[in-house]
């Protein structure tokens, strides 16, 4: 099974400053069809998860453009250009290339 | 607006059974793969099972294979999971979700399953 490893697990950030979360997979996420099925989800306190990014770098509708995704192969990154108070929560990467689909452990973003 | 409403959670003894349901609305249910994802208390997310839009393909994470059965009724816009031989480690919030293109699009609010004696 594919293991997803996120770092850091805790991310204290000052309002207005950038933030970056790394996600590494135990094997390549390039599907046989050439796509890379790497997603990012945000889970605010007390809420269900919400998808932010799909296929590495595609932002979902309504997601602020301060969120961006990048990466290839086994190394991926979620970046927030300027953290706002509403960004507090836990961020998960998830691979959908190989079954069983799997999530990273989560990165808890908090405001300093 | 997509709505997914789970039900059926509760307290069950180890070795017991439970059936969770999910009612979908606001989208064409029969066009989507559907999934169950769970979250143990204070822990991360785990994809549990997946079913194709017509029910012809089903996939399970190893830890529930042979114990859980995912199913759907497109006429009723409903998703189910039958859970047998429940263990303490099955405790958690179970989310129903729409799936497409190897991802999850929308999530329900979840239903809590507690396995304890």
How would you describe the overall organization of this protein?
The complex is a heterodimer of chains A (112) and B (117). Chain A is mainly β and 112 residues long. Helices cover 0% and strands 48% of the residues of chain A. Chain A is built from no helices and eleven strands. In chain A, strands 2, 4, 5, 6, 9, 10 and 11 form a seven-stranded mixed sheet that branches. Chain A has a four-stranded antiparallel sheet with strand order 1-3-8-7, with no helix packed on it. The N and C termini of chain A lie far apart (36 Å). The relative contact order of chain A is 0.34. The mean pLDDT of chain A is 97. In chain B, a hairpin with a 4-residue loop joins strand 7 (68-73) and strand 8 (78-83). Chain B has strands spanning 3-7, 10-12, 18-25, 33-39, 45-51, 58-60, 68-73, 78-83, 92-100, 103-107, 111-115. At the A-B interface, strand 5, strand 9 and strand 10 of A face strand 5 and strand 10 of B.
Q: What is the topological layout?
A:
The complex is a heterodimer of chains A (112) and B (117).
Chain A: E1 4-7, E2 10-13, E3 19-25, E4 38-43, E5 50-54, E6 58-59, E7 67-72, E8 75-80, E9 89-95, E10 102-103, E11 107-111
Parallel strand pairs in A: 2-11
Antiparallel strand pairs in A: 1-3, 3-8, 4-5, 4-9, 5-6, 7-8, 9-10, 9-11
Chain B: E1 3-7, E2 10-12, E3 18-25, E4 33-39, E5 45-51, E6 58-60, E7 68-73, E8 78-83, E9 92-100, E10 103-107, E11 111-115
Parallel strand pairs in B: 2-11
Antiparallel strand pairs in B: 1-3, 3-8, 4-5, 4-9, 5-6, 7-8, 9-10, 9-11
Write out key terms for the chains shown.
heterodimer; A: 112 residues; mainly beta; seven-stranded mixed beta sheet; 11 strands; 48% strand; globular; B: 117 residues; four-stranded antiparallel beta sheet
């Amino acid at each position: 099974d594919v293991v997803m490893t996120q770092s850091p697990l805790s991310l204290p950030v000052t309002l207005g400053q950038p933030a970056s979360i790394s996600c590494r997979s135990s094997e390549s996420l390039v599907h046989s069809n050439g796509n890379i099925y790497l997603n990012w989800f945000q889970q605010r306190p007390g809420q269900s998860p919400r998808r932010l990014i799909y296929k590495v770098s595609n932002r979902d509708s309504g997601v602020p453009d301060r969120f961006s995704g990048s990466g290839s192969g086994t190394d991926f990154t979620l970046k927030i250009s300027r953290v706002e108070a509403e960004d507090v929560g836990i961020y998960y990467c998830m691979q959908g290339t190989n079954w069983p689909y799997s999530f990273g452990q989560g990165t808890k973003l908090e405001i300093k | 607006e997509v709505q997914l409403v789970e039900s059926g959670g509760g307290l069950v003894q180890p070795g017991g059974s439970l059936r969770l349901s999910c009612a979908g609305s606001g989208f064409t249910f029969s066009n989507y793969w559907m999934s169950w994802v769970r979250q143990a208390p204070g822990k991360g997310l785990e994809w549990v099972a997946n079913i194709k839009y017509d029910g012809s393909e089903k996939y399970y994470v190893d830890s529930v294979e042979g114990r859980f059965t995912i199913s759907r009724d497109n006429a009723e816009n409903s998703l189910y999971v039958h859970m047998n031989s429940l263990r303490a480690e099955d405790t958690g919030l179970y989310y129903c979700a729409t799936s497409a293109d190897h991802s999850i699009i929308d999530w329900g609010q979840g239903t809590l399953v507690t396995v304890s004696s």
